Amino acid sequence: MNNQANVRFDMVRLGPFPGVVDPWAEDARYFHQIHNRMMGFIAEQMQPMLFALGYQAGCETSLQIIENRIPDVYIRNREDTSPTPPARWDYGAAAIGVAAEPGVQTDMEVPQLDAVYIYNSNTNDLVTIIELVSPGNKDDRDALTAYRRRRDGILSKGVNVVEIDLTRSRSHLLNDPTVIPDPYHYAVYLPVQETVYIGCAFLTPLKRVAIPLREQVVPLDPQPTYDAAYRQVLLAGHILRETDYLMDYLPQPSLVTLSDRKSALEQVTTWKARLEQLEQ
Questions:
Q1: What's the confidence (pLDDT) of residue 122?
Q2: Range of the domain at 92
Q3: Residue 55, strand partner residues
Q4: Do residues 188 and 174 share a domain?
Q5: 106: helix, coil or strand?
Q6: Which of 15, 53, 101, 197 is most enclosed, with most CB atoms within 10 A?
Q7: pTM higher than 0.85 for the full model?
Q8: Shortest CA distance to 219 belongs to which of 179, 134, 162?
């Protein structure tokens, strides 16, 4: 490719919203293209820190999938195989120690349903699950209920669960008014402790989050993993090809202020105009 073509390709790879979540990519048919890739990048980002602490990360089937119920990203301790529930500890202080958002504790209830034991047949020493929430599952009441039941089963076994929700939806995994103002959020479920909620604003970089282990944490920066997955599948190119970068196709526009909607559309318009110039 010539230099102009290279510049255009790079612009398409970055999309109209470099360094933040592309609001048009929240649609389920686009978001699913980056889901598994993002989970792989999350595991890769944390791997050196985890290994140094005696843990390791890998990718398996999400808890959101009814069959083969093994988690998205599992974190295993090479030495600790005890099923004893962990003691209470100060997650907020540990998060601050790694320059991550401490979040706020809430009294949101975790459903008290029959436990579904989720395990790996080789080790049975699950410590933490990180879930990237699927927008499709949030709109399916039965799928949402089944997922919550499995999450409750995991928590009852003393396993931490971290949910990363990067898509606005009419439904939220957290049944609490706390989540309403934030288009994106993380929820950190700690056994025998209060849930920690961390909100992220629209068109701003995702916050760093502390991933809990056993009375210690490792930092995770979700934004670079989102960016890498988004670029890898050339997602902006797919949305552009489908001519979906229009206000009418913005997912859940009612959950975004008019000012933010206009700002997002202006960024798209500027980006598309620059791409057209490079085609000439």
A1: 45
A2: 25-229
A3: 77
A4: yes
A5: strand
A6: 15
A7: no
A8: 162
